[in-house]
Amino acid sequence: MAGCGSVWWWWCVLVMCVVLTTATPNNPLATLVSRLFQDIPALKFTIFNSRQQQQQQQHSSTQRSGRNYGVLPRLCYGELGCLETGPDFLHQEYRSYNMEPNSRQQINVMFHVRSRQDPSGVLVRGTELSQVLTSTSFKPDRPTKIIIHGFLNGRDMPWLEVIGDEYLKVQDVNVVYVDWTDGSLAIYSQAVANTRVAGLEVAHFINWLQENTGLSPSTVHIIGHSLGSHVAGYAGERVIGLGRISGLDPAEPFFQFMPPAVRLDPSDANFVDVIHTDAGQFSLSGGYGLLQPVGHVDFYPNGGKQQTGCEQSPTPPLFALLSDSNILRGVEDSLGCNHMRAVTLFRDSITSTCPYLAFKCPSYSDFLKGACFRCDGDEAGCASMGEEANTWADNWQPNSVQQMYLSTGPPSSLCLYHYKLRVNVGPGEAGCGTRGSLNVNFITPQYTGKFTITNRIYEGDKPYTFTLEYKHDLGVSEGVVVTWDPHQGVDSPSCRINYNAALPITSLTLTNIEVTLYSRRRSGRSQGTPSEITICPPGNKRVAWVRSGESLRMYPCISTTINTSTPTGPLVLPHFANTIILINARNKSTESVRGMMLLLLVVCVLSGGWVEGTHLDDNHLHHHQPLDLSALPAYLPSTTTPTHQSVLDSDGAFTVFWTPDLQKNEVIWEIHARTLGWIGFGFSSNGNMAGSDFLTAWIEDGQLHLQDRYGTGETLPPLDDHADWRPLYAHENDTHTVLVVARDINTCDSQDYPLTNDSVRLMYAWSDTDPVDGNLYYHGPHRGSKYAFVLVPFYRQDLPQDADVWTISQSIKMPHLQETFYWCHVEKVPKWEKKHHYIGYEMIYGKNSRTNLHHVVVFECMNEGGSSLESTMEQYVGHPGYECYTPNMPDHFFLCERYLITWAIGSEGDMAPDIAGFPLGEKHGGATYFLFQSHYDNQHIEPDVTVEWDMNIYYTDKLRELDAGTMTLGHTLLFSLTVPPRSPSWQLTGHCSSACTSASIPPQGINVFIAFLHAHYAAKSLRLRHFRGSEELPPIAEDFNFAADFQQSRRLYKEVKLLPGDHLTVECNYDSRNRNNSTFAGWGARDEMCSSFLSYYPRIDMSLCQSSPNVQVINDNFRLSGFPKDMNVGDLYVFDPKMVDGRRYQEAVNALPWDSLDHQKINTRITQADQLIRCQYNYGQLVKLDTNMTRYPKTTQYVSPEDKTCSYIHGSSGQTEMNSYGQRTTQTNGLVLGNILLVVLVSLCTKDMSP
């Protein structure tokens, strides 16, 4: 402790402790404070004695207040053995005094023994070890994990139990927590002394088990944190043949640079591994861990000092003891983020498939330069940090020091994969090169790895190598998107920099270090995954020029040889009608004549004889015959970046990218499949083959085989009469087939599936082999489908570079025999002085989350007027949570009612537009506290279901122009939301009345940019209608193929303006033909809802506008006995009220003779009747309205514009008639003549014209 500032800082802490604990003497902190003041003489000696005074007394043994500060006499503890404190325990700089340990009874060490057979475990006192045999499930033939806490910790620290839980997930082990709480809750110098007695207790525990149960010490692994690391060392020196010790950031003060007898050292176990995470300069705010290597192998993540995510601490860590209402959480905070990170890293390594590979290196700076990525012949140059470090134990020399370095991320993505990127720059312009930043996005089936290589100079004809890190294993890259950002700088006198020049790239090579060096270890990857992939310019060009402001797409280098010479087979010409015309090229002497014929053909087309959209008979155009790859149109996939993407299968083997163009009535599809056999892709409303629209394709002998098919049932789809898939690009490499095709949105073909704004199933299949003699063999298990919005704008957009991420993680074990389970917990954002905007989120699917997680909703917690909720909500921060809407859930949670994020099954995430962001923080117009409501679903009541997920929430302090908000519309979640059984079509409605919008929306209106439609499994269509005055406007959103398994929000192509007085209606249509009982409102996935959530700007105070039918309307139409007069019809979440006759509502409704009732008539009466409106502010208070009743407005019904894509022939005077299937039934004379002329010209062009 150097400097007066440190002295007074300590006294400030003590004074505040006294003040804060005097009023609450039963607070756990009071006990700690009392102990601090009991040991004031020692504390005074530590803090106030000058370095000179300490040096004078370093070899003396002076008694102060019953404590000894020099060389201690021999101290014995009965069956535990004796301790001696000789000269090794004193050093004028690092350990200038020693204190006498407390007695064994005062330290009171206990052992908490757990196993899979007894997860709760049994607590055994160190003086009563016989209970291990009589009361616990301990078995000596299992490996034993002993976990020891550190300073100011105790048995109840959450991280202890979490590490034990992780071990029990993956191994059948004995887990033992060492509780020396009474020895650790003291001033630091006293706790240091007590570690030696705690070590004796642990050694006695192991030796006793060896003697009485036959336990082999070699199967014992001790994990200690902070002072607990040294407790483990003291235990190890008294246990012969101890298997392993893992030191998690061993404590520095009084141990750094001391002899091995004083601290943890390699002789304490057969293998000692250490993780250093807080090895900076010791101060009150950190630097609590050792810098000195003390094991067989010492790991230094991020250099062992500043850990990612710990950069900013709002208060010095020790202040957390005084400010946190939860003393244990406060203790963890007081130990510092960096110091606790070693625990987090080790815990994650137990179950992670990421290898945490570290490399032997002279220094961290050398590691960052990429100079140490090697494992050497005996693998002694690398090791896996954490649980698997012992797999390298045989490679260490007994007396060698192995310092290993690696990079790790924040808690949301701790383990990082290391990559080496080689950029080969081609010949450039004259000068010294070009300066700028290179952005490289590696595209894989599951992730897009985004890397930015900062400002530097690139000279021509040189390779550049960079070390990169990413939170995911990128696996097989299917291509990259490269952008170039030139920068200005200062030229040297002898060299001119081309600041505005494009960057020439000949190739990119990405090497996965973990796969290259770790292939024989557990990497969680399938065999055969390449460790290195080279990306080449598109079109097999030698150099790709990346220009400022442009995105260049590049693909894996093609290893197969494709004929690029003048083709002797069919040529493919894209034409005005987007139809493929095949003309046989016989010899060069006919080219001029053929050219003239083609010119005549073009004239004919332009004159209107052959019109856009016409399909010719296959007798004339052989759409299904193979095409030379070299004859495909000059389409380069790199010229545009697709706007949409979806990984269709769970293994990432089949990925599609697409770009819809509504003006051109087409969609460009880019298909990447991990196969060299045939692939299939298409559309279906429900995932069944009947009614589907499918293509099949494969590449064989340099030719593309492309077939258009349509589904008739669970058989091989027959060939379509007209081929509507237009090939643009195709190639194979060693692992993948890539196909780019175009197809019209509406092909006007009855055998095709018309694409709309509705949900659609993208279907896929593939085979490992090409067809034989043109016969497609069954694909086997390689098939499936996934919902998507084909035409709706994609949710994802590039994040601004200044965006930060807030990651929320949850792991929930569902209660046994419970089908639906809701879990609620509270999170908070920091108290930023500067305003921040939330701008989007992304869901990261984890274990069972795609099958058992139904939705996650984030609510803003708000008080009227925006006043602080700290006094009510702070107590729940850090608490794991409560089951929602049960008596255990705190009433304060009902202060959280405004939706911020609404994620539901099938969704990936969403982003706000550039103009708006959602404010964060109570003082900035947003919320500080947020309620996370998670809905878990276990339909088949499977046992032991654990669901895990992460949500990345993106925010920025670079504010958008306007604040955004959300509002909830639809049917109020009440009992009146009822769907009768066996009904093919039952509609429920929810209104937002003009009275509510008049009272809440400003005169200039609000702009809606996202609409989210939500219901459950009985729903088949949803629509959000928009009324203004006497006119109905176009619907804001609608889906006539609604799927409860796919609930992605809809980004609107054009923002919708809402004005005061507008009326909004949510209509939900249900099909309950497969249900024998009525379906009611409720939380379960088999219950129902009818809602729409709107995101808009600028933000207003109104957050909810819903309605429900009048109670009397429900009673009369369902012929019930009546509701109690004192029932509050405005209460939310009333699902099963009691009736006058004593029955419950749901029982009475299910008893109705529904098969003999007129469903349509009853439904019409209910939907057209008056409804009770609920118009609500952010903080739950109702908006005062002139009238609380509403119904459908009297307006002219909106009629969608006629789709003339298939109805009119452009360039002719006639109109094509369409039947109900969208087929042409008549053609004009001009069209017929045009087709005849086309056939004649094609015949002429293909005829042998040699003299």
TrEMBL record:
Gene Ontology CC terms, in alphabetical order: extracellular space; secretory granule membrane
Domain DOMON: 652-767
PROSITE patterns: DOMON
Coiled coil: none
An individual GO BP term: lipid metabolic process
Protein origin, superkingdom: Eukaryota
Transmembrane segments: 6-25
GO molecular function: copper ion binding; dopamine beta-monooxygenase activity; lipase activity
Location in the cell: Secreted
Keyword Amino-acid biosynthesis: no
CDD domains: DOMON_DOH, Pancreat_lipase_like
SMART domains attached to this UniProt entry: DoH
Keyword tags: Disulfide bond, Glycoprotein, Membrane, Secreted, Transmembrane, Transmembrane helix
InterPro entries tied to this protein: AB_hydrolase_fold (IPR029058), Cu2_ascorb_mOase-like_C (IPR014784), Cu2_ascorb_mOase_N (IPR000323), Cu2_ascorb_mOase_N_sf (IPR036939), Cu2_monoox_C (IPR024548), DBH-like (IPR000945), DOH_DOMON (IPR045266), DOMON_domain (IPR005018)
Protein family according to the UniProt entry: Belongs to the AB hydrolase superfamily. Lipase family.
Descriptive protein name: DOMON domain-containing protein
Protein's organism: Petrolisthes manimaculis
